[in-house]
Amino acid sequence: MKKPRIGMVGLGNIAQKAYLPILAKETNWSFEGAFSPSEDKRKSICSQYRIQDFSSLQTLADQCDAVFVHSSTSTHFEIVSFLLTLGKEVYVDKPLAATIEESEKLVELAIKHDRKLMVGFNRRFAPMYVAAKEQAKNIASIRFEKHRMDSIGPNSYEFTMLDDYLHLVDTARWLTNGDLNVIDSTINVNNENNLIYAGHLFKSELNVPIFTEMHRKAGTNLEKLELVAEGAIIRVKNMNTMETESNNQLSISTALSWDTTLKQRGFEDCINHFIDCVQNDQKPEIDGEEGLKSQILLNQLLET
User: Fold this and answer.
1) YceM-like C-terminal domain spans which residues (predicted)?
2) Measured between alpha carbons, how far is 110 from 88 in angstroms, rounded to an integer?
3) pLDDT one-digit tens code per residue, 210-240
4) With contact defined as beta carbons under 8 Å apart, do 194 and 154 qualify?
5) What is the SS3 assignment for 9?
6) Is the peptide bond before 4 cis (omega within 30 degrees of 0)?
7) Residue 277 pLDDT greater than 70, yes or no
8) What is the CATH number of domain 127-259?
9) Packing angle between helix 100-112 and helix 76-85, nearest 10 degrees?
10) What CATH class does 5-121+267-287 carry?
């Protein structure tokens, strides 16, 4: 089977930390190169990874079958629509686009051109979250927290919700395999409109309560998922430690010693899933429509 030719748009923090180290391995694809409007950054990073630096989006697209888009959210619509129209398969960071309207148009465009459009919700592929979901039988309640040590500002609370809290919303939707109803909402902001705390109660279609919360100055960086299920309480901390209480006993498992942080956080399997879908002509698990649903739910939280 022919290896897909992969390109990248945008060379910011997430691209450098999470995607370049994996894509540069060229496991079952060829990494053609990258484009960024910042020439100095483009030349420096592409030289570091020994890949071609493209001077325009068009020249990059001409050499690729699929493109990873890691540019700023405000540019997603313009870049993704350009690539889809050219017939390219696209993986884009969450959120799909800056507004619901733009995201809807991208979903329609992907359908029109029969192209794959995947949104990068890496937590759906984090091995311990996948294991917790598989092990939990007849889930009675879910609590998902994502706290930061000291990260209030400088962006508006709306930006932080769409940029970071969206992970909680999407993971909650994935864990319950369906739509969620908003039951209660608490959002605390300061005088500069920066998010301090957000907490929400949802209920699933099966009447399962889901609690999500985030404090931007909690004194520690902590991400914790807790599933109360039939016969077991399962907790996953920071995506690398799982605690299971069952039969009145506690068992603790940690990530495999050879698993990288990117593997633990789901990036490796997320990337491989998209490329597998490109190679085998399959629909991504988290396609544009699924990403749009999470964004619509997040938008409801901003309006409550």
Assistant:
1) 127-247
2) 10
3) 999 999 999 999 999 999 999 999 999 999 9
4) yes
5) strand
6) no
7) yes
8) 3.30.360.10
9) 10
10) alpha beta
